[in-house]
UniProtKB/TrEMBL annotation:
This is Large ribosomal subunit protein uL15. Residues 8-25 have a biased composition (Basic residues). Keywords: Ribonucleoprotein, Ribosomal protein, RNA-binding, rRNA-binding. Gene3D superfamilies: 3.100.10.10. It comes from Actinoallomurus liliacearum. Residues 1-56 are annotated as: Disordered. Belongs to the universal ribosomal protein uL15 family. InterPro entries: Ribosomal_uL15, Ribosomal_uL15/eL18, Ribosomal_uL15/eL18_sf, Ribosomal_uL15_bac-type, Ribosomal_uL15_CS. Part of the 50S ribosomal subunit.
Amino acid sequence: MGAETPLRPHHLRPAPGAHKSKVRKGRGEASKGKTAGRGTKGTKARNTVPAGFEGGQMPLIRRVPKLKGFKNPFRVEYQVVNVAKIAELFPEGGEVTPESLAEKGAVRAGRLVKVLGTGDISVTVQVKAHAFSGSAKEKITGAGGTAEEL
């Protein structure tokens, strides 16, 4: 034991040569016999009580709903628009931005937009969005348009 370490109860040991026997509670009617320091009757005087026991009230572990799975707090959610919808909303072609899509009711304003490749497009459009799927980029450029990520 160094001088820097404070003395703790678990450091204490009997004096060398001491022979004091361990107290054996509840072994007949002597000083620590009979009730063995547990008082008289009641749950605590008897055997063990389950760890989560709340006196008959519905235990916390059963009151709380089961939470299945995991929700990623860093997930990025996009409003999706298919190329078929862009072809339908912009039949004459032109520039397609998240703002113009929001005006036409395809997405909600102020959210991230991702263009997916379901359907066909034949008009030339200049699409600006936050994300594109590979097939959407191919279809837009194949029709003579451009796909620019914001």
